[in-house]
Write a structure and sequence with these properties.
Length: 298
């Protein structure tokens, strides 16, 4: 995959990714686009919910990080636990995350298929930039044992799938055994504490994962400055560089946006345009099918 024509051919890309899946070299990075259809909010909508819960309109004319910091400082200064619970309540308000809704979502099913393909290789390494635990719930419905990482320092465990929550974890239910993170990355102060901090244990872990895997970016806009910082570090020392690959990752997008495509390519990631509702599940399932055929063929 050393020339652009190969990366612009869906069949070539799918076959390459299927081979990486068989080798256990696929990692998934997930963003809000995965959760929106379940009634979970976008970042602006989350802030609107937080301010609405306090009976106030969301201030205008400020960046989202600044608004989040203003909210925390005004209503929960010195009360970290109360702040986390408030964000969790706003996150899951009116969310449809029962078994029926999780099971019928084709996009989540396709992501799950990549993760659960253990008999022919699997994408068992996942980094989520979401606070929610929808993927864990989906996988556990299918009998998979998951580990949610929401803290900078943590133990490793023998599980089927590890999901690193880069910005913290706010589990949907305390009865599922997942703990509320001690901190989340949502406001300006929290971003400033992690961006570019090479000694941060979670950042080190993420960079290592990215450097040693072909990464699929699903539901991510590219606006996250923390992710952007990690991408540049990963590109510099990626294993794909020694094999002459033009790119080390694939970003799925539903837009034909030259600016977006150029920014991702500068970071070593190819953009594949697909319709998220129908095209993306079909694309991901095809990877699993090709991997199965490759395994049978030996």
């Amino acid at each position: 995959m050393s020339v652009r024509d190969e990366w612009e051919n869906a069949a070539y890309v799918q076959r390459f990714l299927a081979g990486q899946l068989l080798k256990g070299r696929l990692a998934l990075l997930l963003g809000a686009g995965v959760s929106l259809s379940f009634g979970l909010p976008s970042w602006p909508d989350l802030l609107d919910r937080l301010f609405s819960a306090k009976g106030e309109p969301t201030p205008t004319g400020h960046r989202l990080e600044q608004l989040a910091e203003h909210f925390r400082r005004k209503f929960y200064k010195g009360d970290d636990q109360g702040y986390l619970e408030a964000v969790r309540a706003a996150l899951y308000r009116n969310a449809k995350i029962d078994f029926y809704n999780l099971r019928r979502h084709s996009g989540l099913a396709a992501i799950g298929a990549l993760v659960m393909s253990s008999s022919r290789g699997s994408a068992s390494t996942i980094i989520s930039f979401n606070f929610d635990d929808l993927l864990e719930r989906y996988l556990e419905f299918h009998g998979f044992v998951t580990m949610s990482v929401g803290e900078e320092v943590h133990w490793s465990e023998s599980v089927d799938v590890t999901i690193i929550h880069a910005h913290g974890l706010l589990p949907s239910s305390s009865s599922l055994g997942r703990r509320l993170s001690s901190r989340i990355i949502l406001d300006q102060e929290s971003f400033s504490k992690v961006i570019g901090k090479e000694g941060n244990p979670l950042r080190q872990e993420m960079v290592t994962i990215l450097r040693t895997h072909t990464c699929l970016f699903i539901g991510l806009s590219g606006d996250d400055v923390n992710l952007d910082s990690v991408l540049f570090d990963a590109k510099k020392g990626h294993a794909a560089n020694d094999e002459g690959h033009l790119f080390w990752g694939v970003k799925f997008t539903d837009r034909d946006d030259a600016v977006e495509r150029g920014n991702w390519e500068e970071r070593g990631v190819s953009c594949v345009r697909v319709d998220y509702r129908r095209g993306l599940p079909k694309f991901l399932f095809k990877i699993c099918q090709i991997a199965s055929e490759m395994r049978r063929a030996g």
